[in-house]
Amino acid sequence: MTEVNQAGIEQAVRAWVDPWMQLPLAESGAQVAVSVAGKRVEIALTLPYVAATQHRALADALVNTLQQLDSTLQVHVDIAQAVAEAPRTAALPGLAGVRNIIAIASGKGGVGKSTTTTNLALALQAQGARVGVLDADIYGPSQGMMFGVAAGTRPETAEDKYFLPVMAHGVQVMSMSFLVDDNTPMVWRGPMVSGALQQLLSQTLWQELDYLLIDMPPGTGDIQLTLSQRVPVSGAVIVTTPQDIALLDAVKGVEMFRKVDIPVLGVIENMSTHICSQCGHEEAIFGSGGGERLARDYGCELLGQMPLALAIREQADGGRPTVIAEPDGAHARRYLEIATRISVQLAKRLRQARSAPTISIVSD
Fold it and tell me: How many Å apart are CA 166 and CA 337, to the nearest integer?
């Protein structure tokens, strides 16, 4: 193979546009190594985001690009993942092993935020990430039930000062529901609620996570303020439904995160349409386009739209959320795509701090 062809391969690899990042590899923050021996080309690609279910499609696309240069090339692409870590100031000791913290929030209750959080955690795990969930809804913790954690389960302790998260479906989970009886109401004023959250934050020892999702209570109150002051949050995701009243509150959520300098990674429009369980007819009963308008107005991405589906609710209530109950189903595929988009948005924000990829050509 001539030097011209080697240079062509290098240029093609650098210029290949990652369909998820929508950037050439040379600008995406990916790590790439290329080895050429005769007609055989070996490419080792390490992505800065998680997308395990997409690796085959990505490899095929890159192979096709190179074979357009020379159809006789024998191209092998190996894809790995290395999640970028957000820069942070001094964090709580229990968070030392957490690379990125994502707040899942909503302006109002009843939009399916907790169900979304649970499925996103499992989707990120299915895409190859190590994931934890902190249930910060002190008044109405629900993550224990959605993850199928048995009633009365209590976290183990370490070093006589830390709680160890409960493992559920491979995800590390911590919730106020693990520390009190299920029927015990939290009849607390704001300062007590903030104190409970601070205890969960300071006394939970997370084990090496790529992403810690925080299931926020609705609104813009004490919990949100405490979180922004105490935790190095990498970004926030806003969950809303399409109707105007939900969007009005979602706007307040976006504005709140702006005020505390937490970037909004995107918007998820939940209950976007209703799918009839009898005939399959799909109808936008809450209106349409609301999530898209919100994302456009605030310069962030519409991460995805989820339907109002009976199965999603039943599976979450039964402790086997959609992503594991029907991993090959249409709803699970949507969650997997949204999870990758969230990971991509974080990678895009962090790529400026990472060095450019090194592409080396070795000819034998």
Answer: 26
pTM recorded for the entire structure: 0.91
Tell me the average pLDDT of the chain. Answer: 87
Ordered by where they begin, the domains of the chain are 3-82+352-363 (3.30.300.130), 93-325 (3.40.50.300)
Phi-psi region of 136 (alpha: psi -120 to 50; beta: other; left: phi over 0): alpha
Question: Can you tell me the distance from the alpha carbon of 111 to that of 254, in angstroms, rounded to the nearest whole number?
Answer: 15
Q: What is the pLDDT of residue 169?
A: 96
- Residue 50: pLDDT over 60: yes
Q: Tell me the pLDDT tens digit for each residue of 241-271.
A: 888 777 788 888 888 888 888 899 999 999 8
Would you say residue 160 has pLDDT above 90?
A: no
* φ, ψ (nearest 5 deg) of residue 224: -65, -40
Q: Which tokens in the block code for residue 37? A: 């021996």
Query: Which tokens in the block code for residue 144?
Result: 């224990």
Q: Give the residue among 108, 88, 104 at the shortest CA–CA distance from 96.
A: 88
Take residue 71 and report the two structure tokens written for it: 């159809």
Distance of CA 24 to the CA centre of its chain: 22
| Cβ atoms 217, 90 nearer than 8 A | no
In 3D, which of 116, 107, 110, 103 has the Cα closest to residue 219?
107
Alpha helices in the chain, H assignment, sequence order: 3-15, 25-28, 55-67, 113-126, 143-146, 190-203, 222-230, 244-259, 290-297, 310-317, 322-325, 330-350
pLDDT band, very low/low/confident/very high, at 277 (cuts 50, 70, 90): confident
